[in-house]
Design brief:
Keywords: Aminotransferase, Lyase, Transferase. The protein is α+β, with helices and mostly antiparallel strands. The chain has helices at residues 17-23, 41-56, 62-76, 130-141, 183-192, 239-250; strands at residues 4-7, 10-11, 27-33, 37-38, 81-89, 93-100, 111-116, 146-150, 156-159, 163-168, 171-175, 196-198, 210-214, 221-222, 225-228, 231-234, 255-256. The strands form 4 sheets. The chain has a 5-stranded antiparallel sheet, with helices on one face. The chain has a 5-stranded mixed sheet with strand order 9-8-7-15-16, with helices on one face. A 5-stranded mixed sheet has the order 12-11-10-13-14.
Length: 257
């Protein structure tokens, strides 16, 4: 499948410099489409509308987004693909939809390096992703797979391109630090019904049985280890929490585009 760009529902073979400059200030959401359906599609719509109201002072109706998503699916004639929806403004509100081949979930269990960092306006999935790429590359150059962030006070928040949660027995715990509330994380929380959102301190890491990363690609990617200042906490496979998470997701079927 070749990548495709649609600007406000129409194919865009090239973007003029003014459009590219405008697109640098905005927000986006990314999703995986399988058989024409998306996990937590309603949450993607809600994120786009909420962020557009905050960033541009106007709503973004779900019907408009859905129309552009359906146009994207029609143009590539495939029900399995990756979609990123960017929202930016010139004189009007614009949707730039990037369509590409589907991305398979990760199979390698990541070894994470804990880094002190807090994203700017973390509740928004904004286009300022330099820091995420930078710290991820720094971790890889140090021999790890990616980075997980913590605050100055030592609370775990999120990873470079994932949310993170922890398991203690059958209880799933989400960090209370300020993060981007990922759509896949919200799907999991909706399926769980009962969960904890509490401070997860670096000193608490050895007390958890497992850690999982979640995003639009990886529903629950087990973390192999987290390292801080040369000290590493290893996590072994944990069947009890795997079963809890699988049952939670099973209650939340994908939604058709």
């Amino acid at each position: 499948m070749s990548d495709l760009l649609l600007l406000n529902g129409a194919p865009a073979s090239a973007l003029d410099p003014a459009t590219l400059r405008a697109a640098s200030y905005g927000h986006f959401t990314s999703m995986q489409v399988r058989d024409g359906c998306v996990d937590g599609l309603d949450l993607h719509f809600a994120r786009l509308d909420r962020s557009t109201r905050e960033v541009f002072g106007q709503p973004l109706p779900a019907d408009r987004v859905r129309a552009d998503l359906r146009a994207a699916v029609r143009h590539v004639d495939s029900g399995d693909l990756s979609i990123r929806v960017n929202v930016f403004a010139t004189t009007d509100l614009n949707l730039l939809v990037h369509v590409g081949p589907p991305v398979a979930p990760s199979t390698q269990l990541p070894r994470l390096l804990a880094v002190q960092h807090e994203r700017a306006v973390p509740h928004l999935k904004h286009t300022g992703t330099f820091d995420l790429i930078y710290y991820g590359r720094q971790a890889q150059q140090s021999g790890y797979d990616s980075a997980v962030f913590h605050t100055a006070s030592g609370e775990i928040s999120e990873a470079t391109i994932w949310n993170i949660c922890f398991a203690r027995g059958s209880q799933i715990v989400f960090p209370a630090a300020r993060v981007l509330p990922g759509t896949r994380q919200q799907v999991l929380q909706r399926g769980l019904g009962t969960y904890d959102a509490i401070p997860v301190r670096l000193t608490d890491l050895p007390t958890y049985d497992a850690a999982y990363l979640t995003n639009s690609v990886d529903a629950a990617l087990p973390v192999a280890s987290i390292t801080l200042d040369g000290s590493t906490v290893d996590y072994a496979p944990h069947d009890e929490s795997v079963e809890v998470i699988a049952k939670a997701y099973a209650t939340q079927p994908p939604q058709p585009v």
